[in-house]
Amino acid sequence: MQPIISISNLSKTYDGGVRALNSVSLDIEQGEIFALLGPNGAGKTTLISAVCGIVTPTSGTVLAGGHDIIRGYKKARAMIGLVPQEISTDAFETVWATVNFSRGLFGKAGDRAYIEQLLRDLALWDKKDAKIMELSGGMKRRVMIAKALSHEPEILFLDEPTAGVDVELRRSMWNLVRGLRERGVTIILTTHYIEEAEEMADRVGVIRGGEIIVVEETEAIMRKLGKRQLTLTLTEAMETVPDALAEWHLELADEGHRLVYSFDANDESTGIPSLLRRMGDLGIGFADLDTSKSSLEDIFVGLVNAQQEPAA
Amino acid sequence: MNIRGVWALYSFEMQRTWRTLWQSVVTPVITTVLYFVVFGSAIGSRMEDIGGVDYGAFIVPGLMMLSLLTQSISNASFGIYFPKFSGTVYEMLSAPMSPIELVLGYVGAAATKSILLGLIILATANLFVDVRIEYPLVMILFLVLTALTFSLFGFIIGIWADGFEQLSFIPMLVVTPLTFLGGAFYSINMLPDPWRSISLFNPVVYLVSGFRWSFYGEGDVSIGLSLGITAAFLIACLAVVIWIFRTGYRLKE
């Protein structure tokens, strides 16, 4: 199936000379939730802004639903809803007026029933006649989402949708995003919360220094790059790892009270039984053992650092 | 053509007028009434007719033009500057709106407000002096042309402005002095040379003169020249606006 968004060799160099995007190519499939991860200044917002028409690309092409965002910008933009990172609304307008304004701006005829349902879904119906300046931060963010969804877009960009919102609202946002996906909306979100991507995204892209360094299905990336760890709580602390255990590349933690063994969960042989046997032979006792898998955050940090090292 | 988008933008801007009724309509009307009280009644009653026109009636086109120019600029400049300031401009830039449609929405609303204000001032003037309009169609043409041209000019200022100070700089320090010196309250034919010749370099002279011609059939310069200068300024403003959207100057990076 043709991707709903196809980005080819997209580059952006700002007037000041900063190269924010460097030949980025990326396909977004219809109906998926795609999370774009990256440290501050990696180019996430520039990428979204270029696709949505807020920033003019220096080179490259972007197709949204098969429409070029420059030559066929009207058709392309009509498909896209954008929730920017900053809460920018007309403080003196009512919720009802500003959401209907957004719908009109995108060329859609008024639809009271749709807007009413949208506001109800976002728990804003009771506030429809309130001025935006009277709303809480969380409500304002929901107004931004309502504006972005007012014209029934097929693609929704959420730039840091849960930045600075409390845990409860974050959970309700996640539910909202899942609900939108069930209705067939393709969602591209940027986030600093790796947990958010791990929880929701079908695929994850990592961007660093204006370049996409990895794009994978979330499960696949966890499987491929995820490490498991075995932590042994020792009965007696040790100062150094004995040479006899060198082949397992163990690390000491908690001032010598814990022995940590990292292994690849996908390997046929994890090396755990032989490690435990060798420890028994050496008379090293342990009181407890625990295994854990690395989170997407660990993978993300590892990826970003791995990319930084050669340049350093 | 995204007609609904243009209408949404136009309606949004017009609603801002009703929300800020005092600032948008009442304040300019009160200011104009004060001009009539001071120049029309207090001073005007002691002045001779100018070209056979009572002084109170003579200043009506100039006063209308003064409000038309300043209000067109301030309405249009504020209309585009505020979304830039508040960040809501992202919505205009990401909407399926062409530059022409955006200009139609913003400039159309600003010009409409100015025209309405001009007509309100004309109605107010009628309460004080006997105003006659010899060429009503030409008067409407000038009203619309001037409102459009200076709303476009205001739109350019709104995009150029980096702060509220710059926003008021040109209307207050350039346009208002040029209007006062452009024959709003006198005929430039009353000035001795070289001041009369120098005045001809003031573009507002041609606007006021042409507008006054539509009222009383007489102006400081020919009506053709007045129309030509106004149209030339309109074309110049259009060219700048086209350049702004082509380059994204101060709108997008």
From TrEMBL, chain A:
Record-linked PROSITE patterns: ABC_TRANSPORTER_1, ABC_TRANSPORTER_2
Q: Which keywords, in A-to-Z order, does the entry hold?
A: ATP-binding, Nucleotide-binding, Transport
Gene Ontology molecular-function annotations:
ATP binding; ATP hydrolysis activity
Q: Which SMART domains match?
A: AAA
Q: Which residues form the ABC transporter domain?
A: 5-234
Question: How is this protein named in the record?
Answer: ABC-2 type transport system ATP-binding protein
Q: Which InterPro entries match?
A: AAA+_ATPase, ABC_transporter-like_ATP-bd, ABC_transporter-like_CS, ABC_transporter_ATP-binding, P-loop_NTPase
State the organism of origin: Parasphingopyxis lamellibrachiae
TrEMBL record, chain B:
A Pfam family assignment: ABC2_membrane
Q: Which GO terms describe its cellular component?
A: ATP-binding cassette (ABC) transporter complex
List, alphabetically, the InterPro entries matched. ABC-2_transport_permease, ABC2_TM, ABC2_TM_bact-type, ABC_2_transport
Q: Please provide, alphabetically and separated by semicolons, the GO molecular function terms listed in this UniProt record.
A: ABC-type transporter activity
Q: Where in the cell is it found?
A: Cell inner membrane; Membrane
Residue ranges spanning the membrane: these are 20-43, 55-82, 102-125, 137-161, 167-186, 221-245
Q: Where is the ABC transmembrane type-2 domain?
A: 19-248
Q: Which UniProt keywords apply?
A: Cell membrane, Membrane, Transmembrane, Transmembrane helix, Transport
Chief site of localization: membrane
Keyword Ribosomal protein in the entry? The reply is no
Q: Does the keyword Membrane apply?
A: yes
Bilayer topology reads: Multi-pass membrane protein
Q: Which family is this sequence assigned to?
A: Belongs to the ABC-2 integral membrane protein family.
Q: What is this protein called?
A: Transport permease protein
Q: Which organism is it from?
A: Parasphingopyxis lamellibrachiae
